[in-house]
Amino acid sequence: MGTRLLRAWAPALWLGPSTVGVVLFFIGPLLVVVWLTTQSWNLLSDPAWAGAANLGALADPRFARSLVTTFTIGASAVVIEIVVGFVLAQALARNSASNRATMVMLLLPWMMAPLALGVVARWFLSPSNGLIASVIGTRFTALDEPMTAVIAVVLVVAWQATGFAALVYSASLRAIPREVHAAAALDGLGSWGRWWRIDWPLVAPTSGFLLIAGVPQALGLYDLVVALTGGGPGFATETVAMRVVQTAWNSFDVGPAAVLAVALSVIGTSLAATVVVWLRRRT
Fold first, then answer.
1. How far apart are the C-alpha atoms of 172 and 204, rounded to whole Å?
2. SS3 state of residue 39
């Protein structure tokens, strides 16, 4: 009887520590944030009931602008990560010492803290005293103009995660049986035909995984952008996460900030769920 009881409760015992962690560090804080959406709180006085008044934060033009900016930067960066990562993986799939060294170099940006990466990128792109400005001997204006500043942020974000995408793709490509490529060669498919007709469809689950992993990366952009552009010029590179922090800590208005944070979570969950449904339909 004791053995049967132990077997019945074994899964719960194994999952117990993880469940406690999820409750304490995810579900608990999430419920607190949801509660804060109904409160008026300036971080100094006691919270007071505000009802639905905080929902007005969703109509703020700066929130709409930051949402568009977040989607633009995030979507562009994820597309670059997937395309460039897949191309790099074709070479890295060959297991050689030089490829392993190259992979380590590609993974260095991914292993760096986003804030540190933003500082390094700022050192390269700073208009007056950056590395590029010093080399060309004149002011480098990439971060001075809204469009080029957004492009700079996109490239730096993509730079951070492309090595990880290449690593994941290379593992998927190695798992493709050699007989498949041999049959493709007999059918007269060249490298491009093999990539497009064989490799790309077979690694679709990997692409889906990278899309899902890219959703929180894109929607949570904060420290890298703060270090690189500070949200400028103007508000051209201000993301939703930056808007949430600005509202809560600079304006001392926690209720509207919580509304924006919850809205961002709902959007992120919806995007991830859409990718999961797409993957299931393909498989």
1. 10
2. strand
Q: What is the pTM of this model?
A: 0.87
CA angle at residue 250 from 77 to 220, to 5 degrees? 20
- Bridge-based pairing state of the strands 48-49 and 39-40: antiparallel
The rounded distance, in Å, linking the Cα atoms of 221 and 265 is 13
pLDDT digits (tens, 9 = 90+) for 233-264: 989 999 999 999 999 988 899 999 999 999 99
All structural domains of the chain, each given as residue ranges with its CATH number in brackets, are 75-237 (1.10.3720.10)
ω into residue 233 within 30 of 0, thus cis?
yes
In DSSP terms, 39 is beta-bridged to 49
197: its two tokens? 């007709």
pLDDT of 95: 61
Residue 44 is predicted with a pLDDT of 86
Q: Which conformational region is residue 105 in: left (phi greater than 0), alpha (psi within -120 to 50 degrees), or beta?
A: alpha
CB 99 within 8 Å of CB 92: yes
